[in-house]
Amino acid sequence: MLWIAAMPTRRALPCTSPLRLVVAQLVALAALPGCSGGGGETEDPSATATTTEGATGTTAEETTGEALRPNWHEDVAPVVAERCGACHVDGGIAPFSMSTYEETKDWAPIMAYEVGQGLMPPWHAVETDACQPPLGFKHDARLDDATKALFREWSDHGAPEGDPALAAPIPPPPSIDLPNPTKTVTMASPVTVEKEGATLDYFNCVRIDPGNTSDVYLDGIQLIPGNRAIVHHVLIYADTKAESDGWGPSGIKKDCGGGSGLKSSAPLISGWVPGGLPMETPKDVGIALPAGSRLVLNVHYHATGGGPEIDDGTGVALRWTETPPAWVSNFKLLGDPGDGDSLSGPFSIPAGEADHAEDFEWIVSQGGSPFPDSVEVRLWAAAAHMHRVGVDLRMWVEDRDTAASTCLLETPRWDFDWQRVYEYDAAVDQMVRLKAGDKIRIQCRYNNTLANPGVMQALAEVGLTEPIDVSVGETTLDEMCIGAIGVAIKTP
């Protein structure tokens, strides 16, 4: 299963992650005489290696004694610190540090290519011919053309260092932690995960006691993964009846499936997937957490296959207020598994199918409490979730009265290793309004061939070499088609 609202950080990149694949491709390209880039007008990413001395050879700067521009100290280092420094630091969530010139210079050709193609910094909610969202998103990580050109010119000149005495001020990296949390709580007992036979995936429910003795309203949540090597994703539920206290001192219910593990209904309030940031609701919007509630974290663990791994640090940072907000937030998962009807028949992605689509439709208030027109409901966040066979997800709303279509989100460069919730950058009363009878449509597209690196990785994990038919399910070699929405409901 998945989660729903935006959460924190990313695991170390696996060997077949997009960045590692690009590196391998560039090495192969550089070894081919006369090789051109990826087609069309895309610049050959190996050009730097063939047209300059490269980052490790003699540069024009060393030959003339003049500081070339752009160079590391005066131009590149401040941008790297500000736009890359939150992840590319020692002990960070990226696979290598770029804090110093020595650590960064050899990556210059790769950096130029990645930022030029819009692959780094990771950001997957992009405008397409089919999708033009009416509002921008918070935390948009995309670089402008001038910054992309800076990296290309630096690489083309051989990644000159410049004069440390002329170094520009280095801005602090942006924080990826929740600001000013009210409380941080960690799991009470450890969990050990190890591959057993062909089984890699495990679902444990973990009780967290936030300790609120009065009703509170959350406006910030950060899931803290204790062991990124095995924490695949986390769903966060509000156990408003403290039913999970029955799980004993460990606070853990093993093999609890994809939900809360509770007999009573528990609202989904948030969650985490690799690449997510802390979730912060819009101004005047809060998530109700009644006094004495517990949180249940449904943790999907994915074993590495390299021996036992221990998670003893997964927890949550919470920020709340006791003042009732003007708007109360709810979350919904739409698609499969989730609410809504399939428009494509039984979920099945045939082996060898390079462009397969699954379509779903949810009628607003279908499967939940109705929203009469007198109640104002605004959509403040959207997210996509598929597994490794997925390549694109698009979600849009069709107005019940006019049939006008408003695109909410599209992720045409889907990356399973880097997911997030996209929060609209506007006042809540300016966001897309939902009315009972509106239709939300979701279309997921899949490439179930060996041309999809994600398929290759998923097959390798289970010892297969050829694609198989894929159906809906919880494990990585299964698939999903989920569009997640966060809605704000105006209180009387």
Question: Can you give a write-up of this model?
Answer:
By secondary structure, the protein is an alpha+beta fold. 14% of the residues lie in helices and 27% in strands. It has 8 helices and 22 strands. It has helices spanning 18-30, 47-51, 60-64, 72-84, 101-104, 108-116, 145-156, 453-461; strands at residues 183-186, 191-193, 201-208, 216-224, 231-239, 252-253, 268-272, 279-280, 285-289, 294-302, 309-311, 315-321, 327-336, 341-342, 356-363, 377-385, 390-398, 405-410, 421-423, 432-434, 439-446, 481-490. The strands form 4 sheets. Strands 1, 4, 8, 9, 12, 13, 16, 19, 20 and 22 form a 10-stranded mixed β-sheet that branches. The two termini are 34 Å apart. Residues 1-58 have low confidence and may be disordered.
Whole-angstrom Rg: 24 Å
Q: Between the first and last Cα atoms, what is the distance in angstroms?
A: 34 Å
Overall geometry comes to globular
Query: What portion of the residues fall into strands of 2 or more residues?
Result: 25-35%
Give the count of helical stretches.
8
**Low-confidence runs (pLDDT<50, min 5 residues)?**
1-58
Which class of secondary structure composition applies to the elements? alpha+beta
State the oligomer.
single chain
Number of strands: 22
Give the helix level as a range of percent: 10-25%
Biggest β-sheet strands, sense, barrel: 10 strands, mixed
- Order of helical and strand elements: HHHHHHHEEEEEEEEEEEEEEEEEEEEEHE
Mean pLDDT across the residues is: 86
Q: How would you summarize what this structure contains?
A:
14% of the residues lie in helices and 27% in strands. It is α+β, with helices and mostly antiparallel strands.
